[in-house]
Write a structure and sequence with these properties.
Helix content is 22%, strand content 31%. By secondary structure, it is an alpha/beta fold. It has one domain: NAD(P)-binding Rossmann-like Domain (Rossmann fold, 3-Layer(aba) Sandwich). The strands form 3 sheets. It has a 6-stranded parallel beta sheet with strand order 3-2-1-9-10-11, covered by helices on one side. It has a 3-stranded mixed beta sheet with strand order 4-8-5. It has a two-stranded antiparallel sheet with strand order 6-7. β1, α1 and β2 form a beta-alpha-beta unit. The longest helix is centred in the N-terminal third of the chain and has 10 residues. It starts with a strand and ends with a strand.
Length: 206
């Protein structure tokens, strides 16, 4: 059975590197990275260059609930930094490839631990209907692993995946939840319970 890895909010490629290095995916896996930030996407390509023998496709878009354009808010890092998932997975980032980059516009609530001077407009970016992407581009009879670290957009995206039953095609879901970054309060446990009721393995990402 073919396997797909859908890395939503790939940042600088650290999650894909983690899945490869920990043998969760292999060279037969079709890997798709989704990242709207041009700086982060370029760093992903550089950081994953050594895995050129893997089937990796890069999509410079934001994962969302419709095909449209939205304003990107970028967390600016004043210095280079390193992302580390475990002792074997260290990967580099820099400047405008920060972690709180999002497309949530008026729904986003800036956390107090990020100084105002480190937030900057990123311009309009392309967004995709993630449900539509899966149904039109992925063999839904295959094993699908999805990692979602999209800075608050996960509630809207997962809500649509559930509502239109696309979630039923996903076998494993790794999610970093960002309720604290949103104006509206979402019930995270409701999303987890609904996915698990549909036999989706749900893991917390980071």
């Amino acid at each position: 059975m073919k396997t797909y890895l859908l890395d939503c909010g790939s940042n600088v490629g650290q999650a894909t590197k983690y899945f490869i290095e920990n043998s969760i995916v292999d060279k037969d896996t079709s890997i798709h990275l989704f990242e709207p930030n041009e700086v982060s996407m370029q760093l992903s390509k550089e950081n994953l260059e050594k895995y050129s023998d893997y089937d990796i496709t890069y999509h410079q878009v934001a994962v969302w609930i419709e095909n449209c354009k939205r304003n990107l808010t970028v967390e600016y890092s004043p210095a280079d930094y390193q992302c580390q998932l475990n002792s074997n997975d260290i990967i580099s980032g820099k400047n405008n490839a920060g972690g709180a980059t999002n497309i949530m516009e008026s729904m986003w609530k800036k956390p107090s631990y990020i100084a105002d001077e480190y937030i900057t407009p990123g311009g309009m970016v392309d967004c995709i209907d993630f449900s539509e992407f899966i149904k039109n581009n992925i063999d839904t009879k295959s094993k699908i692993i999805c990692k979602m670290d999209i800075e608050g957009a996960e509630y809207e995206v997962l809500g649509k995946l559930i509502d239109d039953d696309t979630i039923n095609f996903i076998d494993e879901m790794y999610v970093e939840w960002h309720n604290h970054l949103l104006v509206e309060n979402y019930d995270t446990s409701m999303f987890i319970n609904e996915m698990q009721s549909r036999n989706v393995k749900v893991e917390r990402w980071i």
